[in-house]
Amino acid sequence: MMNEPTHTVTRYDQELERLRGIVARMGGLVERQTAQAIAAVVDQNEEAAREPPRLDAEVDMLEREAEQLAIRILALRAPMAVDLRQIVAVLKMSGDLERIGDYASSIARRALKVEQLEGALSFSALRAMGRLVQENLHKAVEAMVENDATRAKEVWNADTEVDEIYTSMFRELVTYMMEDPRNIGPCIHLLFMAKNLERIGDHATNIAERIYYAVTGDMLPAERPRGGDAAKIIPG
Amino acid sequence: MMNEPTHTVTRYDQELERLRGIVARMGGLVERQTAQAIAAVVDQNEEAAREPPRLDAEVDMLEREAEQLAIRILALRAPMAVDLRQIVAVLKMSGDLERIGDYASSIARRALKVEQLEGALSFSALRAMGRLVQENLHKAVEAMVENDATRAKEVWNADTEVDEIYTSMFRELVTYMMEDPRNIGPCIHLLFMAKNLERIGDHATNIAERIYYAVTGDMLPAERPRGGDAAKIIPG
User: Fold this and answer.
1) Given CB atoms, is B53 within the 8 Å cutoff of chain A?
2) CATH of the domain at A30
3) Which range of residues forms the domain containing residue B224?
4) Is the Cβ of A116 closer than 8 Å to some Cβ of chain B?
5) How far is B18 from chain A (nearest CA, A)?
């Protein structure tokens, strides 16, 4: 790029900036989807329940836009080193973000089917788990927008706590189901919602791993710290 | 590339070939993981249950290898048009394949916790669903290796049937849980296993969509045909 006139370099920078802007917008949208999905459940808010699926189309569109712009930049600018690593990271992260949106929509679609257990502890567990996952997702999106490896590593470490709440919530739900068959329906929804939240946390962790690699060139260890295994506590 | 000496073009082709080889190997591995996971459940085969988690490390390694080789090709060869679109598709598909491996491992880890229901219909439903998902996954991997848009579209259409079996299996499992609380534990495992299989089918569909786009330059419609909605049949 050294011999090219300045305006080309500037346009290249603008394109990279636009690409980052697209994933930042995706990040903001899936954060909103996640927040609304949780509000839909714990506040039994119908309006909140409608929003995540509604936003899905926009997230999908942005993912395609990011991909096409990335291809364009790769074709026309032949970026090197850090830029190239970041473009590849963006391509991968947009996939994670799209999945997060899917999980949030899936939670929202179940949200209004669980009113029976409204008084139960599971709602506060879901709220706590939701808060943590949202926090992690927010940090992951920030780390992504600011190329912040330190923050990325924080997200990567914090997911343990999500696992722990998930495991204890799982235990509680299984107990409810055993106690009264009328709880089975709503509990299945809650189990899947908790699972979806846990997956959102996983994808936030994936994003954190990719940012860490894109910024530092080093990989975080393949195995991240984990907190509990819900599958182990189901009665056999 | 027209003015470059032949040996460079050849090396470039070799690198692209190597990249395709890596995802083809990933495809083969996750097919094997899926097959073993299903065998682990329906035949209650301990050895089969150990294999999918064991292969995970290899799949992860191949994903990283694919990413690094893709970056290398992008940096050194500045590929254009179809090649470029295919490299981007490979980057995205390796993520789908890695996820499929995760889901298969998750099924395998639950496989030996469900013996109580061995005589129940759910096992044959899981077997049928497993067979279909494997078939679709195999076709998706073939389409990927051979850049076959027609086959890709077949996969994309066939996922409806997976949804249908999933929905009816879901209904059956909920009934078992209602009938006898002792069924709750194993049924939860089966619900999650069925869900994981359904997700594997989804990722096979994603792969098909990407191949179709990489080969033709056209996108398949955002909404694929669907068969039933399991969430709707849970008693409220």
Assistant:
1) no
2) 1.20.58.220
3) 6-233
4) yes
5) 19
CA-based nearest residue to B182, from A188, A234, A190: A234
Query: What gap in Å lies between CA B220 and CA A106, rounded to an integer?
Result: 22
pLDDT in single tens digits along all 236 residues of chain B: 445 555 566 788 899 899 999 999 999 999 999 999 999 998 889 999 999 999 999 999 999 999 999 988 988 888 887 888 889 989 999 999 999 999 999 999 998 888 655 555 577 888 889 999 999 999 999 999 898 999 999 998 887 888 888 888 888 888 889 998 888 988 898 999 999 999 999 999 999 998 998 888 888 876 666 666 666 666 65
**What's the structural domain count of chain B?**
1
**Contact (CB<8Å) B75/A80:** yes
Is B204 within a domain? yes
A219:B81 CB<8 A: no
ipTM of this complex: 0.83
Asked if A222 lies within 8 A of B57 by C-beta distance, the reply is yes
Q: Kindly identify which residue of chain B lies nearest to residue A213, measuring between CA atoms.
A: B64
- Scan for tokens 């590849």, then name that residue: A88
d(CA B17, CA B21): 6
Q: What's the gap in Å between the CA of B139 and the closest CA on chain A?
A: 22
Query: What's the CA gap between A183 and A173, in Å, rounded?
Result: 9
